[in-house]
Amino acid sequence: MSTKSVIRDVNQHVGETVTIGSWINNKRSSGKIQFLQLRDGTGYIQGVIVKSEVSEQVWDDAKSLTQESSLYVTGVIREEPRSASGYEMTVTGIEVIHITENYPITPKEHGVDFLMDHRHLWLRSNKQRAILVIRAEIIRSVRQFFDTNGFTLVDPPILTPTSAEGTTNLFHTKYFDEDAYLTQSGQLYMEAAAMALGKVYSFGPTFRAEKSKTRRHLIEFWMIEPEMAFTDHEESLRVQENFISHVVQSVLKNCRTELETVGRDISKLEQIQAPFPRITYDDAIEFLHEKGFDIPWGDDFGAPHETAIAESYDKPVFITHYPAGIKAFYMKPDPNRPEVVLCADMIAPEGYGEIIGGSQRIDDQALLEERFKEHGLSLDTYQWYMDLRQYGSVPHSGFGLGLERTVAWICGLDHVRETIAFPRTLYRLYP
Ligand code: 4AD
Ligand code: MG
User: Fold this and answer.
1) Torsions phi, psi of 48, nearest 5?
2) CATH 3.30.930.10 residue ranges in the chain?
3) Hey, whose CA ends up nearest to atom 4 of ligand 1?
4) What's the predicted TM-score (pTM) here?
5) In the beta sheet, which residues pair with residue 204?
6) Ligand 2 center to residue 164 CA distance, Å?
7) How far apart are CA 393 and CA 379, in angstroms?
8) CA 271 to the chain's CA centroid
9) CA-CA distance, 330 to 334, in Å (whole number)?
10) Residue 137: strand pairing partners
11) Which protein residues are within 6 Å of ligand 1, measured from CB?
Protein backbone atom coordinates (compact mmCIF):
# COMPACT_ATOMS: atom_id res chain seq x y z
CA MET A 1 0.00 0.00 0.00
CA SER A 2 1.27 3.46 -0.82
CA THR A 3 0.10 6.90 0.29
CA LYS A 4 -0.43 9.70 -2.18
CA SER A 5 1.91 12.61 -1.46
CA VAL A 6 3.56 15.66 -2.98
CA ILE A 7 7.28 16.35 -3.14
CA ARG A 8 7.07 19.20 -0.62
CA ASP A 9 5.80 16.74 2.02
CA VAL A 10 8.20 13.82 1.53
CA ASN A 11 10.00 14.69 4.78
CA GLN A 12 6.91 13.36 6.57
CA HIS A 13 7.21 9.99 4.81
CA VAL A 14 10.80 8.86 5.32
CA GLY A 15 10.95 5.07 5.13
CA GLU A 16 7.42 4.86 3.71
CA THR A 17 6.16 4.02 0.25
CA VAL A 18 4.45 6.97 -1.45
CA THR A 19 2.95 7.72 -4.87
CA ILE A 20 3.53 11.13 -6.45
CA GLY A 21 1.94 12.59 -9.59
CA SER A 22 4.88 14.15 -11.41
CA TRP A 23 6.66 15.18 -14.60
CA ILE A 24 10.12 14.30 -15.83
CA ASN A 25 12.34 17.34 -15.53
CA ASN A 26 15.46 15.51 -16.66
CA LYS A 27 16.85 12.02 -16.80
CA ARG A 28 20.14 10.22 -16.89
CA SER A 29 21.19 6.63 -16.84
CA SER A 30 24.33 4.66 -16.10
CA GLY A 31 23.60 1.24 -17.53
CA LYS A 32 22.02 -0.54 -14.59
CA ILE A 33 20.65 2.54 -12.79
CA GLN A 34 18.28 5.22 -14.08
CA PHE A 35 17.98 8.59 -12.35
CA LEU A 36 14.71 10.47 -12.85
CA GLN A 37 14.65 14.17 -11.96
CA LEU A 38 11.01 14.55 -10.96
CA ARG A 39 9.01 17.71 -10.43
CA ASP A 40 5.41 18.12 -9.31
CA GLY A 41 5.05 21.89 -8.86
CA THR A 42 5.77 21.73 -5.13
CA GLY A 43 9.42 20.75 -5.50
CA TYR A 44 12.01 18.46 -7.03
CA ILE A 45 13.19 14.98 -6.08
CA GLN A 46 15.42 12.38 -7.68
CA GLY A 47 13.97 8.92 -8.29
CA VAL A 48 16.50 6.11 -8.45
CA ILE A 49 15.69 2.89 -10.32
CA VAL A 50 18.00 -0.08 -9.93
CA LYS A 51 17.54 -2.62 -12.72
CA SER A 52 18.14 -5.66 -10.52
CA GLU A 53 15.47 -4.50 -8.03
CA VAL A 54 12.48 -3.80 -10.31
CA SER A 55 10.45 -5.74 -12.84
CA GLU A 56 11.36 -5.55 -16.51
CA GLN A 57 8.14 -3.62 -17.08
CA VAL A 58 9.08 -0.87 -14.61
CA TRP A 59 12.58 -0.66 -16.06
CA ASP A 60 11.26 -0.35 -19.64
CA ASP A 61 8.55 2.14 -18.66
CA ALA A 62 11.21 4.31 -17.04
CA LYS A 63 13.29 4.08 -20.21
CA SER A 64 10.38 5.33 -22.29
CA LEU A 65 10.03 8.54 -20.23
CA THR A 66 11.13 11.74 -21.92
CA GLN A 67 11.42 15.36 -20.68
CA GLU A 68 7.95 16.56 -19.50
CA SER A 69 6.35 13.12 -19.73
CA SER A 70 3.84 12.66 -16.90
CA LEU A 71 3.58 9.73 -14.54
CA TYR A 72 2.60 8.42 -11.15
CA VAL A 73 5.78 7.30 -9.51
CA THR A 74 5.78 5.01 -6.46
CA GLY A 75 8.72 4.34 -4.19
CA VAL A 76 10.34 4.52 -0.77
CA ILE A 77 11.51 7.92 0.52
CA ARG A 78 15.05 8.02 1.90
CA GLU A 79 17.06 10.82 3.46
CA GLU A 80 19.90 11.71 1.12
CA PRO A 81 22.20 14.46 2.38
CA ARG A 82 24.00 14.71 -0.98
CA SER A 83 20.83 15.79 -2.85
CA ALA A 84 19.68 19.42 -2.92
CA SER A 85 16.30 18.56 -1.39
CA GLY A 86 17.79 16.25 1.24
CA TYR A 87 15.65 13.30 0.07
CA GLU A 88 15.55 10.70 -2.66
CA MET A 89 13.08 8.07 -3.78
CA THR A 90 13.93 4.45 -4.48
CA VAL A 91 11.43 3.76 -7.24
CA THR A 92 9.43 0.54 -7.09
CA GLY A 93 6.62 1.30 -9.54
CA ILE A 94 5.77 3.57 -12.46
CA GLU A 95 2.42 4.33 -14.07
CA VAL A 96 3.02 6.30 -17.25
CA ILE A 97 0.26 8.87 -17.86
CA HIS A 98 1.50 10.60 -21.00
CA ILE A 99 4.66 10.41 -23.09
CA THR A 100 5.82 13.80 -24.36
CA GLU A 101 7.56 14.06 -27.70
CA ASN A 102 9.78 16.95 -28.79
CA TYR A 103 9.29 19.26 -25.81
CA PRO A 104 10.29 22.64 -27.22
CA ILE A 105 12.11 24.04 -24.16
CA THR A 106 15.25 21.96 -23.80
CA PRO A 107 18.02 22.45 -21.25
CA LYS A 108 19.98 24.48 -23.86
CA GLU A 109 19.75 28.30 -23.95
CA HIS A 110 16.75 29.85 -25.70
CA GLY A 111 16.17 33.43 -26.80
CA VAL A 112 13.67 35.64 -24.97
CA ASP A 113 11.20 35.80 -27.89
CA PHE A 114 11.14 32.03 -28.13
CA LEU A 115 10.57 31.71 -24.39
CA MET A 116 7.85 34.36 -24.41
CA ASP A 117 6.08 32.55 -27.29
CA HIS A 118 6.19 29.44 -25.09
CA ARG A 119 5.38 31.22 -21.85
CA HIS A 120 2.68 28.62 -21.08
CA LEU A 121 5.45 25.98 -20.95
CA TRP A 122 8.29 28.20 -19.72
CA LEU A 123 6.37 28.54 -16.43
CA ARG A 124 7.36 24.96 -15.66
CA SER A 125 11.03 25.85 -15.33
CA ASN A 126 12.61 25.95 -11.89
CA LYS A 127 13.32 29.69 -11.95
CA GLN A 128 9.92 30.74 -13.31
CA ARG A 129 8.19 28.59 -10.72
CA ALA A 130 10.27 30.17 -7.94
CA ILE A 131 9.33 33.68 -9.12
CA LEU A 132 5.62 32.83 -9.02
CA VAL A 133 5.98 31.38 -5.52
CA ILE A 134 7.71 34.59 -4.35
CA ARG A 135 5.01 36.69 -6.04
CA ALA A 136 2.34 34.75 -4.14
CA GLU A 137 4.22 35.29 -0.87
CA ILE A 138 4.47 39.02 -1.59
CA ILE A 139 0.70 39.16 -2.16
CA ARG A 140 0.05 37.17 1.02
CA SER A 141 2.23 39.48 3.10
CA VAL A 142 0.69 42.61 1.51
CA ARG A 143 -2.77 41.44 2.55
CA GLN A 144 -1.52 40.43 5.97
CA PHE A 145 0.00 43.88 6.55
CA PHE A 146 -3.17 45.79 5.73
CA ASP A 147 -5.61 43.28 7.22
CA THR A 148 -3.78 43.45 10.57
CA ASN A 149 -3.28 47.24 10.57
CA GLY A 150 -6.90 48.36 10.51
CA PHE A 151 -7.46 48.55 6.74
CA THR A 152 -10.54 47.15 4.98
CA LEU A 153 -10.24 45.62 1.52
CA VAL A 154 -12.40 47.37 -1.09
CA ASP A 155 -12.54 46.50 -4.80
CA PRO A 156 -12.81 49.47 -7.17
CA PRO A 157 -14.35 48.96 -10.64
CA ILE A 158 -12.33 47.93 -13.68
CA LEU A 159 -14.62 49.53 -16.28
CA THR A 160 -14.68 53.28 -15.69
CA PRO A 161 -16.16 56.35 -17.38
CA THR A 162 -13.09 58.57 -16.78
CA SER A 163 -9.34 58.55 -16.35
CA ALA A 164 -7.62 58.56 -12.97
CA GLU A 165 -4.00 59.18 -13.95
CA GLY A 166 -4.12 61.27 -17.15
CA THR A 167 -5.90 60.85 -20.43
CA THR A 168 -3.08 59.83 -22.76
CA ASN A 169 -2.76 56.11 -22.07
CA LEU A 170 -6.32 54.85 -21.68
CA PHE A 171 -7.69 51.61 -23.08
CA HIS A 172 -10.95 52.46 -24.72
CA THR A 173 -13.95 50.17 -25.05
CA LYS A 174 -17.70 50.52 -25.56
CA TYR A 175 -20.04 50.14 -22.60
CA PHE A 176 -23.21 49.55 -24.57
CA ASP A 177 -23.82 53.03 -26.04
CA GLU A 178 -21.38 54.82 -23.76
CA ASP A 179 -17.60 55.10 -23.89
CA ALA A 180 -15.68 53.30 -21.18
CA TYR A 181 -12.04 52.85 -20.23
CA LEU A 182 -10.14 50.12 -18.43
CA THR A 183 -9.00 51.43 -15.07
CA GLN A 184 -5.52 52.97 -14.76
CA SER A 185 -5.81 53.21 -10.99
CA GLY A 186 -8.56 52.65 -8.44
CA GLN A 187 -7.49 55.66 -6.42
CA LEU A 188 -10.41 58.03 -6.97
CA TYR A 189 -12.86 55.31 -5.94
CA MET A 190 -10.67 54.40 -2.98
CA GLU A 191 -10.90 58.02 -1.81
CA ALA A 192 -14.67 57.60 -1.71
CA ALA A 193 -14.25 54.29 0.13
CA ALA A 194 -11.90 55.91 2.70
CA MET A 195 -14.62 58.45 3.51
CA ALA A 196 -16.91 55.49 4.23
CA LEU A 197 -14.52 53.08 5.97
CA GLY A 198 -11.55 55.15 7.23
CA LYS A 199 -8.58 53.10 6.09
CA VAL A 200 -8.99 50.98 2.97
CA TYR A 201 -6.85 49.19 0.40
CA SER A 202 -7.45 47.67 -2.98
CA PHE A 203 -5.55 45.04 -4.88
CA GLY A 204 -6.38 44.56 -8.51
CA PRO A 205 -5.34 44.77 -12.15
CA THR A 206 -4.78 48.14 -13.82
CA PHE A 207 -4.21 48.95 -17.48
CA ARG A 208 -2.10 51.53 -19.27
CA ALA A 209 -1.80 51.82 -23.02
CA GLU A 210 1.74 53.12 -22.65
CA LYS A 211 3.95 52.87 -25.70
CA SER A 212 6.89 52.20 -23.40
CA LYS A 213 9.09 49.25 -24.22
CA THR A 214 11.25 49.25 -21.11
CA ARG A 215 12.16 46.63 -18.53
CA ARG A 216 9.83 48.36 -16.03
CA HIS A 217 6.62 48.72 -18.01
CA LEU A 218 3.71 46.36 -18.47
CA ILE A 219 0.44 47.16 -20.20
CA GLU A 220 -1.55 45.22 -17.60
CA PHE A 221 -0.16 45.25 -14.07
CA TRP A 222 -1.42 44.76 -10.53
CA MET A 223 -1.52 47.55 -8.02
CA ILE A 224 -2.06 47.76 -4.26
CA GLU A 225 -3.71 51.08 -3.40
CA PRO A 226 -4.22 52.05 0.25
CA GLU A 227 -6.15 55.22 1.04
CA MET A 228 -6.37 56.74 4.53
CA ALA A 229 -8.75 59.35 5.95
CA PHE A 230 -7.38 61.80 8.54
CA THR A 231 -3.82 61.04 7.39
CA ASP A 232 -1.25 63.53 6.17
CA HIS A 233 1.67 63.07 3.80
CA GLU A 234 4.18 62.46 6.60
CA GLU A 235 2.05 59.73 8.23
CA SER A 236 1.57 58.08 4.86
CA LEU A 237 5.35 57.81 4.36
CA ARG A 238 5.65 55.98 7.66
CA VAL A 239 2.98 53.47 6.61
CA GLN A 240 4.81 52.96 3.31
CA GLU A 241 8.22 52.21 4.83
CA ASN A 242 6.75 49.83 7.43
CA PHE A 243 4.72 48.14 4.72
CA ILE A 244 7.68 47.53 2.39
CA SER A 245 9.89 46.35 5.27
CA HIS A 246 7.19 43.86 6.25
CA VAL A 247 6.88 42.48 2.72
CA VAL A 248 10.64 42.05 2.20
CA GLN A 249 11.14 40.45 5.62
CA SER A 250 8.24 38.04 4.98
CA VAL A 251 9.78 36.89 1.71
CA LEU A 252 13.15 36.43 3.42
CA LYS A 253 11.50 34.35 6.11
CA ASN A 254 9.24 32.19 3.95
CA CYS A 255 10.96 31.91 0.54
CA ARG A 256 14.64 31.14 1.21
CA THR A 257 14.80 28.26 -1.28
CA GLU A 258 13.08 30.26 -4.01
CA LEU A 259 15.36 33.28 -3.46
CA GLU A 260 18.34 30.96 -3.88
CA THR A 261 16.80 29.47 -7.03
CA VAL A 262 16.49 32.91 -8.62
CA GLY A 263 20.05 33.75 -7.52
CA ARG A 264 19.14 36.71 -5.32
CA ASP A 265 21.81 38.39 -3.18
CA ILE A 266 20.00 37.95 0.13
CA SER A 267 22.29 40.28 2.11
CA LYS A 268 20.91 43.20 0.07
CA LEU A 269 17.33 42.36 1.10
CA GLU A 270 18.27 41.94 4.75
CA GLN A 271 19.04 45.67 4.91
CA ILE A 272 15.48 46.64 3.97
CA GLN A 273 14.23 47.85 7.36
CA ALA A 274 12.30 51.06 8.14
CA PRO A 275 12.95 53.98 8.32
CA PHE A 276 13.87 54.78 4.71
CA PRO A 277 15.89 57.84 3.62
CA ARG A 278 14.13 60.89 2.14
CA ILE A 279 15.31 63.50 -0.32
CA THR A 280 13.32 66.41 -1.74
CA TYR A 281 12.96 66.91 -5.48
CA ASP A 282 15.03 70.12 -5.12
CA ASP A 283 17.90 68.30 -3.44
CA ALA A 284 17.65 65.48 -5.97
CA ILE A 285 18.03 68.01 -8.82
CA GLU A 286 21.08 69.50 -7.12
CA PHE A 287 22.54 66.04 -6.59
CA LEU A 288 22.00 65.20 -10.27
CA HIS A 289 23.71 68.40 -11.35
CA GLU A 290 26.70 67.46 -9.20
CA LYS A 291 26.74 64.09 -10.95
CA GLY A 292 26.86 65.82 -14.32
CA PHE A 293 23.22 65.41 -15.41
CA ASP A 294 21.79 68.28 -17.41
CA ILE A 295 18.19 68.38 -16.10
CA PRO A 296 16.34 71.64 -15.41
CA TRP A 297 14.14 72.17 -12.33
CA GLY A 298 10.59 71.22 -13.33
CA ASP A 299 11.45 68.21 -15.50
CA ASP A 300 10.39 64.72 -14.48
CA PHE A 301 13.02 62.11 -13.69
CA GLY A 302 13.74 59.30 -16.11
CA ALA A 303 15.15 55.89 -15.31
CA PRO A 304 18.83 57.03 -15.40
CA HIS A 305 18.08 59.85 -12.94
CA GLU A 306 16.24 57.54 -10.55
CA THR A 307 19.02 54.98 -10.73
CA ALA A 308 21.69 57.60 -10.02
CA ILE A 309 19.77 58.83 -6.96
CA ALA A 310 19.05 55.31 -5.67
CA GLU A 311 22.72 54.32 -5.96
CA SER A 312 23.53 56.45 -2.91
CA TYR A 313 21.37 54.26 -0.68
CA ASP A 314 21.08 50.60 0.24
CA LYS A 315 17.37 50.99 1.10
CA PRO A 316 14.48 52.36 -0.94
CA VAL A 317 14.54 56.18 -0.98
CA PHE A 318 11.59 58.59 -0.98
CA ILE A 319 11.82 61.52 -3.40
CA THR A 320 9.36 64.09 -2.04
CA HIS A 321 7.85 67.46 -3.02
CA TYR A 322 7.84 67.27 -6.82
CA PRO A 323 6.80 70.31 -8.86
CA ALA A 324 3.00 70.37 -9.23
CA GLY A 325 3.35 70.62 -13.01
CA ILE A 326 4.66 67.08 -13.46
CA LYS A 327 2.29 65.36 -11.04
CA ALA A 328 -1.38 64.32 -11.05
CA PHE A 329 -4.20 66.86 -10.68
CA TYR A 330 -5.37 65.59 -7.28
CA MET A 331 -2.13 66.15 -5.32
CA LYS A 332 -2.23 68.70 -2.50
CA PRO A 333 0.13 71.67 -2.83
CA ASP A 334 2.60 72.26 -0.02
CA PRO A 335 1.00 75.11 1.98
CA ASN A 336 4.43 76.70 2.48
CA ARG A 337 5.38 76.44 -1.18
CA PRO A 338 2.43 75.85 -3.52
CA GLU A 339 4.61 75.20 -6.59
CA VAL A 340 5.46 71.77 -5.15
CA VAL A 341 3.06 69.05 -3.98
CA LEU A 342 2.89 66.83 -0.88
CA CYS A 343 3.88 63.66 -2.68
CA ALA A 344 6.57 61.03 -2.77
CA ASP A 345 7.83 58.38 -5.13
CA MET A 346 9.57 55.45 -3.49
CA ILE A 347 12.59 54.41 -5.56
CA ALA A 348 13.83 50.86 -5.04
CA PRO A 349 17.56 50.21 -4.71
CA GLU A 350 19.76 48.54 -7.35
CA GLY A 351 18.22 50.36 -10.31
CA TYR A 352 14.67 48.98 -10.04
CA GLY A 353 13.15 52.46 -10.17
CA GLU A 354 9.87 53.77 -8.81
CA ILE A 355 7.82 51.13 -6.99
CA ILE A 356 5.39 53.45 -5.15
CA GLY A 357 3.72 56.70 -6.14
CA GLY A 358 1.68 58.48 -3.49
CA SER A 359 0.50 61.81 -2.12
CA GLN A 360 -1.75 63.74 0.17
CA ARG A 361 -4.91 64.61 -1.80
CA ILE A 362 -6.50 68.00 -2.34
CA ASP A 363 -9.36 68.29 0.17
CA ASP A 364 -10.44 71.82 -0.74
CA GLN A 365 -13.35 71.99 -3.16
CA ALA A 366 -12.45 75.30 -4.83
CA LEU A 367 -8.84 74.30 -5.43
CA LEU A 368 -9.87 70.93 -6.87
CA GLU A 369 -12.26 72.67 -9.27
CA GLU A 370 -9.43 74.94 -10.38
CA ARG A 371 -7.22 71.91 -11.05
CA PHE A 372 -9.95 70.28 -13.14
CA LYS A 373 -10.07 73.36 -15.33
CA GLU A 374 -6.28 73.54 -15.66
CA HIS A 375 -6.13 69.88 -16.71
CA GLY A 376 -9.05 70.18 -19.12
CA LEU A 377 -11.11 67.61 -17.20
CA SER A 378 -14.88 67.81 -17.40
CA LEU A 379 -16.61 68.50 -14.10
CA ASP A 380 -19.62 66.44 -15.21
CA THR A 381 -17.83 63.10 -15.23
CA TYR A 382 -16.08 63.84 -11.93
CA GLN A 383 -19.08 65.22 -10.06
CA TRP A 384 -19.11 62.28 -7.67
CA TYR A 385 -15.42 62.84 -6.88
CA MET A 386 -16.13 66.51 -6.23
CA ASP A 387 -18.91 65.49 -3.81
CA LEU A 388 -16.24 64.01 -1.53
CA ARG A 389 -15.02 67.61 -0.99
CA GLN A 390 -18.50 68.94 -0.47
CA TYR A 391 -19.67 66.52 2.20
CA GLY A 392 -17.37 66.16 5.20
CA SER A 393 -14.06 66.68 3.42
CA VAL A 394 -11.03 65.60 5.47
CA PRO A 395 -7.26 65.51 4.98
CA HIS A 396 -6.40 62.18 3.41
CA SER A 397 -3.49 60.44 1.74
CA GLY A 398 -2.79 57.29 -0.18
CA PHE A 399 -0.37 55.54 -2.46
CA GLY A 400 -0.04 52.83 -5.08
CA LEU A 401 2.49 49.99 -5.10
CA GLY A 402 3.23 48.36 -8.45
CA LEU A 403 3.31 44.62 -7.74
CA GLU A 404 5.40 43.54 -10.73
CA ARG A 405 8.17 46.06 -10.15
CA THR A 406 8.26 44.95 -6.52
CA VAL A 407 8.55 41.29 -7.57
CA ALA A 408 11.33 42.21 -10.06
CA TRP A 409 13.27 44.03 -7.32
CA ILE A 410 12.83 41.39 -4.62
CA CYS A 411 13.75 38.58 -7.06
CA GLY A 412 16.57 40.61 -8.66
CA LEU A 413 15.19 40.14 -12.21
CA ASP A 414 16.29 42.05 -15.30
CA HIS A 415 12.78 42.60 -16.62
CA VAL A 416 9.19 42.78 -15.32
CA ARG A 417 8.01 40.34 -18.00
CA GLU A 418 9.08 37.42 -15.77
CA THR A 419 7.16 38.65 -12.71
CA ILE A 420 3.64 37.66 -13.82
CA ALA A 421 2.42 34.38 -15.29
CA PHE A 422 1.20 35.83 -18.59
CA PRO A 423 2.68 39.31 -19.10
CA ARG A 424 0.97 41.84 -21.35
CA THR A 425 3.82 43.83 -22.84
CA LEU A 426 3.94 46.27 -25.72
CA TYR A 427 2.63 44.41 -28.82
CA ARG A 428 2.46 41.02 -27.09
CA LEU A 429 -0.95 39.49 -26.38
CA TYR A 430 0.01 35.83 -26.92
CA PRO A 431 -0.20 33.43 -25.17
O1 4AD B 1 2.73 56.35 -9.92
P2 4AD B 1 1.44 55.77 -10.39
O3 4AD B 1 0.99 56.12 -11.76
O4 4AD B 1 0.38 56.19 -9.29
C5 4AD B 1 -0.97 55.99 -9.33
O6 4AD B 1 -1.56 55.36 -10.18
C7 4AD B 1 -1.67 56.52 -8.13
N8 4AD B 1 -3.08 56.73 -8.48
C9 4AD B 1 -1.53 55.56 -6.99
C10 4AD B 1 -2.24 56.03 -5.75
O11 4AD B 1 -1.83 57.01 -5.16
N12 4AD B 1 -3.29 55.33 -5.35
O13 4AD B 1 1.51 54.19 -10.30
C14 4AD B 1 1.78 53.56 -9.06
C15 4AD B 1 2.82 52.47 -9.24
C16 4AD B 1 4.17 52.95 -9.76
O17 4AD B 1 4.98 53.44 -8.72
C18 4AD B 1 4.74 51.68 -10.36
O19 4AD B 1 5.29 50.85 -9.37
C20 4AD B 1 3.50 51.01 -10.91
O21 4AD B 1 2.40 51.53 -10.24
N22 4AD B 1 3.36 51.21 -12.35
C23 4AD B 1 3.64 50.29 -13.29
N24 4AD B 1 4.12 49.03 -13.18
C25 4AD B 1 4.29 48.33 -14.32
N26 4AD B 1 4.01 48.81 -15.55
C27 4AD B 1 3.53 50.07 -15.71
N28 4AD B 1 3.24 50.50 -16.93
C29 4AD B 1 3.33 50.87 -14.54
N30 4AD B 1 2.86 52.13 -14.33
C31 4AD B 1 2.89 52.31 -12.99
MG1 MG C 1 4.32 57.46 -10.55
Assistant:
1) -110, 130
2) 119-418
3) 357
4) 0.97
5) 223
6) 12
7) 18
8) 20
9) 13
10) none
11) 164-165, 185, 187, 208, 210, 217-218, 221, 223, 225, 354-358, 398-400, 402, 404-405, 416
How far is C-alpha 174 from the geometric centre of its chain's CA atoms?
30
**Other Cβ atoms closer than 10 A to 234:** 13
Ligand 1: atom nearest CA of 219 is 28
First-to-final CA distance of the chain: 42
* Model pLDDT for residues 15-53, shown as the tens digit of each residue: 999 999 999 999 999 999 999 999 999 999 999 999 999
Exposed, middle or buried by CB within 10 Å (0-12, 13-18, 19+), for 428? middle
d(CA 155, CA 205): 10
Do residues 352 and 244 make contact, with C-beta atoms less than 8 angstroms apart?
Answer: no
Taking only the tens place, the pLDDT of each residue in 370-420 is: 999 999 998 888 999 999 999 999 999 999 999 999 999 999 999 999 999
Mutational pocket test of ligand 1: of 138, 221, 346, the residue with most ligand atoms within 8 Å of the beta carbon: 221
Whether domain 3-98 has CATH 2.40.50.140: yes
At 32 the three-state DSSP class reads coil
Which of the ligands is closest to the CA of residue 223? 1
Question: How far is CA 234 from its chain centroid?
Answer: 26
Q: Are the C-beta atoms of residues 51 and 33 closer than 8 Å to each other?
A: yes
The CATH T-level fold of domain 119-418 is BirA Bifunctional Protein; domain 2 (3.30.930)
Instruction: Name residue 177's amino acid.
Output: D
Contact 39, 10 (CB under 8 A): no
Cβ within 8 Å of residue 380, ≥6 positions away: none
**DSSP string of 122-179?**
HTTSHHHHHHHHHHHHHHHHHHHHHHTTT-EE----SEESS-SS-STTPPEEEETTEE
User: Distance between alpha carbon 326 and the CA centroid of its chain, in Å?
Assistant: 26
CATH 2.40.50.140 location in the chain: 3-98
User: Do 425 and 211 contact (CB within 8 A), yes or no?
Assistant: no
- Within 291-400, residue ranges assigned H as helices are 303-310, 365-374, 383-390
Bridge partner list, 77? 14, 89
